[in-house]
Amino acid sequence: MRFVVFAIVTVLALSGLTTRLVAMQLAGAPAREPAAALAPAEVGRQIVTEPVPSTRGLIYDRAKRLLVENVPTFTVSVRPADLPLSQRPDVIGRLSGLLDIAATTITETIDGAIGSRFDPVAIAHDVPEQTARLISEDSLTLPGVEVTVDARRDYLDGPLFTQLIGWTGSIDATAYASLKSQGYLPDDSIGKAGVESVYESALRGVYGVREVEKDGTGRTLRVLSTTTTPQAGDSLVLTIDSREQKLAQQALDWGLKLSGAKRGAIVVENPQTGEILAMVSAPTYDANLFSRGISTADFQKLLSDKNLPLMNHAIGDIQPPGSTYKLVTGSGVLADKKLGVTETVLSKPYVQLGSTLFWEWNHAGWGPLDIKDGFAHSSDTFFYQMAQRLGIARLAYWARQYGFGQLTGIDLPAEAGGLVPTDQWKLETLGQTIFPGEVLQAGIGQGYDLATPLQLVNAYAALANGGTLYQPQVVREIVSPDGTVVRPFTPKVIRKIAAPSWVFTTMREAARRVITSRHTYNFVDLPIVVAGKTGTAEFGLRDKNGVLPYHNWFAGFTPKNVWTKDNPTGDVSKPDSQLAFAVFIYDAGTLGNTATEVAKYYLQLHYGIKQDLRLPQLLERTNFYQGGR
Amino acid sequence: MGVLRVERDAPTGIAARVGGVAWRDFDLQLFVYAVLLATLGLTMAYSNTAAQLGGDVAQGGTTFVRGLVWAVVALVAFAAATAFDYTWLKAFSWPIYVVNLALLVASLVLGSSDAVSARWVSIFGLQFQFSEIAKILMIVVLARYLADHDRRLDSLAAIVGACLIVIPPWILVLMQPDLGTSLVFIAVLVGMLFMGGASLRWLGALAAATLAALPLVWTYLLHDYQKERLTSFLDPAKDPLGAGFQLLTAQHAVSDGGWLGAGLTNGAQSQSNLLPVQATDFVFAVLAEELGFIGCLVVFLLFAALLWRILTIAWRSRDPFGLMVGAGVASMILFQIVVNVGMVLGVMPITGIPLPFITHGGASLVSIAIGLGILQSIAMRQQRAEW
After folding, report:
1. Confidence of residue B289 (pLDDT cuts 50, 70, 90)
2. Taking the CB of residue A388, how many other CB atoms lie within 10 A of it?
3. Cβ contacts from A onto B, under 8 A
4. Which residues of A fall within a CB distance of 8 Å from B258?
5. Are B378 and B319 in contact, with CB atoms under 8 Å apart?
6. Nearest to B116 among A5, A31, A85 (CB)
7. Which of A247, A373, A567, B80 sits most deeply, having the most CB atoms within 10 A of its CB?
8. Which among A124, A120, A129, A135 has a CA at the least distance from the CA of A75?
9. Do A3 and B252 touch (CB under 8 A)?
10. How far is A138 from chain B (nearest CA, A)?
């Protein structure tokens, strides 16, 4: 009887369901899954506290010109749970048209998103305001599409300050893990480079707390109250003068363009305080790329660029400093009384060590030279002999006194420390002590010596101020939102260099003679008093002609009494300089010293000198090494 | 029971004109069980509306108000079907079949783009799902065919013929896409073939063939979201916030029900609007949470009694057509109960099959009302059918 069978089936089916119901409702709850998985379901419609982001502090230059501000940015997201499947193609098609993103890309973004279907998936950042308006007004035909407004950092001068100021970006997993306890959110943004990163805690401010009512899927229904109002972050006043920064960039760009070199840096410092007035690193890029959410393709391009745009070359590029380093050797040999101020030493075509010849750069020499002339001619054989008199240990001592081989402690991330070779260092890394020939090379800034442009300008700033090594700083003041100075500027002294002041006076006069001896060609014809030192440093591997590529350096300072009409003798004996600078050109490859020409052009611009003494013919690229250390 | 009185009056008027109907044979039990179940459905609609609107239930356009409107429409449909002499249905079964196909095609073409799929058609502002009506029309057509082949269902040809009748509307329903209704079609077909006395051997063979074809259907016919829903019941915790979310929440709600439930409009899960389709597919979870085990048991008993009455009518009709209609309606209701409740209890995949009477949905209620009306018509006209 099929009726009976049907009846039995019915009874069995209903009994089966009843049994299951008994098991679920009356006998515990087998279906109750792990509590964690159910947490969002269990909270239901309820009141939760959530953080309210604070306004990030602004950044100004030393003249209070605004460099970074916060602007609203519109993000378009899709909440997959609210987008009906049947309308998906339509909605994605319309979004594709409005946002100018391929429909497949949008689909991939939505499908590739991890997490809950109730979490919005961002499909476009930094959408133009008009498009954002259009989309948010069209919510009826675009179900599941949301437009949110966030604050974005706008870097007003774009590439000019990128390496200094840095940028903000999304917090990454490791940073989040360590900062979670300080109230950071998984989707927070954080300073990732430059002062944005170093002064993150000051700029960020304190997030507030508010109570909101949410439904079970996490959608905010309404805001109930603000428990704690967010506190805006403090603002930064940089030591940088944006006018100087622009002039420095103009000079560097000119030099790079003419010489065809791609990498370089220029740093300007106030020797009396350690304040950095300008710091330009080339090549650069626009920080707004990052604050807007950089595309993978753009990021890959920056990462794979062999000229390393992401590096701040002024503090991160460690290269042999060449003849600029003779400042260390000269100061050391004077302070250690291994050479008198007026004592002369014979410069010659070469210095022989065993069977090896160490050549003078002009393969001739200049006869007997005192320290000032040796420095002025940049005589290699003179300083080989000075290095021999000092020995590697004392040479390293004086290098470290000037701040080489150690971090300057500037308030910027990713500073490199450079290298000052010693017996101990070589024993530890290469298993041998320094060879006598290597002592000679160390005396002229070659061989193992490595320094950053910042270390160099800081050493010359110490020379200019009479022997005080300051810690360079780029942030002058931290100012609270109401305008009170939270942290005023205080110069920080690293050390007083352990040499009597006459050593510095002598070396300053030697540096002045570099200019007056016309070693730097027409530099002396500027209507100002300049002292400084050129440097040409070989690096890397020999090319097919057996020629090494080389960098150009120039480091120097100007006395306070700078105009030659006020200071006809070119007196640099007073330690009153207000301006020290260093220029670095990577792989210069030019006939003359590109760094010197850039320094000259920068000083012309800085002092507003009408006369143009630039020598562009010296910046023709050559593949023949002309010497001119 | 004001409603009941209104109901009794209306068919009497029509019946007087139709004439000669044995109103003493009106199956009051069937009617009462159905009304009780529908009332429970309205109660749940009230509770759900309260969940969404927080009190202002009676305002126009709410789930509850629409439910009331549909209940009235269903009563009218029931009365009309009862008064209508079912033997005419036999005569008109082929035109009905054509109309059925036309409606399904129309809903594919006209289907509203606002809804999840093309299955909804808007009539006078009320969303209507033709595939629900198609189930009843399908039962009528199939009953006619099987009644014609009474005593010859041993042959494979008759079984294949029945399948051929079902396949065109089945494909149209699947195209909407409405996986749930298409499964109901199959259940109805199997139930009617079985009750019609089809050879068990051939039925078994057919079942085996279907099982063998499943992997093909899985690979080529089902949408990804359908697969996701079908499999999520196996391990809802795997994706607690995605496809498994409804299930976990539903099961949690059921568990919270206990003996007596939280009381109407008091369910923690239900009233926080956590169940994504709590007015429709997951309404039983709300019922279980708010009315508890006792409430569920009452629902089951009402369903059992209803099915009992349907089978009794079918049995008594002694008309192969009447028997087949009863078998079809019973199969449909039983299958929908098992799959819908099973889904909420986590023992069946998520398919979007409504729970008869309880699930808020006009088309479902109206189509069942028509089915029961036809059965009433059969019950009242059995003398004539014998004659």
Report:
1. confident
2. 18
3. 138
4. 25-26
5. yes
6. A85
7. A247
8. A124
9. no
10. 15
Contacts with B314 from chain A: Cβ below 8 Å:
3
pLDDT higher than threshold 50 for residue B385: no
User: H or E element: which one contains A43?
Assistant: helix A35-43
How, if at all, do strands A579-586 and A121-127 pair?
Answer: unpaired
Q: Which amino acid is at A333?
A: V
- Cβ–Cβ of B113/A86 closer than 8 Å? yes
Chain B CB contacts of A32 below 8 Å: 251-252, 255
What does the pLDDT look like over A208-240, one tens digit per residue? 888 877 766 566 667 777 778 888 899 999 999
Please tell me the predicted confidence (pLDDT) of residue A28: 54
State whether residue B265 sits within 8 Å of chain A by CB. Answer: no
* Res A115: pLDDT: 62
**For residue B32, what pLDDT is reported?**
92
Using a CB-CB cut-off of 8 Å, the residues of chain B touching A116 are: 241-242
- Which own/partner pairs from A520-527 qualify as long-range (CB within 8 Å, at least 24 positions apart)? A520/A593, A520/A596, A520/A600, A521/A592, A521/A615, A521/A618, A522/A613, A522/A615, A523/A596, A523/A600, A523/A613, A525/A611, A525/A613, A526/A600, A526/A603, A526/A604, A526/A609, A526/A611, A526/A613, A527/A563, A527/A564, A527/A565, A527/A609, A527/A611
**Strand pairing partners for A220?**
A214
Confidence band, pLDDT 50/70/90 cuts, at residue B278: low
Which chain B residues contact residue A5 at CB under 8 A?
194
The total number of residues shown for chain A amounts to: 629
What ipTM was reported for this prediction? 0.81
How far does CA B184 lie from the centroid of its chain? 8
Mean pLDDT lowest for which of A33-42, B23-32, B190-199, B353-362? A33-42
| Cβ contact A115–B241 (<8 Å) | yes
Give the rounded percent of residues in chain B with a pLDDT score beyond 90.
Answer: 13
B240 in contact with A, Cβ within 8 Å: yes
Q: Mind giving me the DSSP string for A342-402?
A: S--EEE-SEEEETTEEEE-TTSS--EEE-HHHHHHHT-HHHHHHHHHHHHHHHHHHHHHHT
Distance (Å) from the alpha carbon of B345 to chain A's nearest alpha carbon: 7
In chain A, the N- to C-terminal Cα span, in Å, equals: 113
CA dihedral angle for residue B341, residue B344, residue B346, residue B351, rounded to 10 degrees: 80
The distance between the two most distant Cα atoms of chain A, rounded to a whole number of Å, is 130
Query: Among A17, A82, A87, A107, which would you mutate to test the B interface (most chain B Cβ atoms within 10 Å of its Cβ)?
Result: A17
Cβ–Cβ < 8 Å for A254, A247: no
Give the tens place of pLDDT for each residue, A367-381.
999 999 999 999 999
